[in-house]
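Moderator note: this is an archived Q&A kept for reference. The question asked for a predicted structure of one protein chain; the sequence and the answer are reproduced below.
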Amino acid sequence: MTTVRIPVWSKLTRPQRILLVVVVVLVVGYGLALGGARSTDGSAADRPSGLVGWLGDRLAGTNDADRADLSAPCLRSDTQLDVAGTCTLTVAAVDGSAMRSVRMRTDAPLVVQATTPGGDTVVSSELAAGDDLSVSVDSTGGDIGLRCRADTCTVTLLTGS
């Protein structure tokens, strides 16, 4: 059996060896985190890949709200809202402490307002035609205000799809 000797290693003190191992682990981890994070059009990747994407798939995010928990006077079908002026999408309360997401896409300019989960701060977002939005709702439920900036807006619910 051949023994491989690294001449520098034997000259390092124990704290220096530990530091060197930590630096090597960080450099390798950084490389794994960046691995595959390329985009063919020169822009940033839409979704992280490599180690960061894998961790995100395992640890991140909230579950979609159940469509049965959604109600609104402008709800035309299981997947569409027809907003003429304003409409309030209500997300029912559920047992437990789960965060849920209501994902939607609009075909016209739309303003969406909702209360932050677990708080009382109202946030709003202006969407252009074709934009997607995800609104987080905690287990207490809540209202999501929709205000169409055109004559009518068709909002497609992506939640649960």
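Archived answer notes: DSSP finds three helices and ten strands in the chain.
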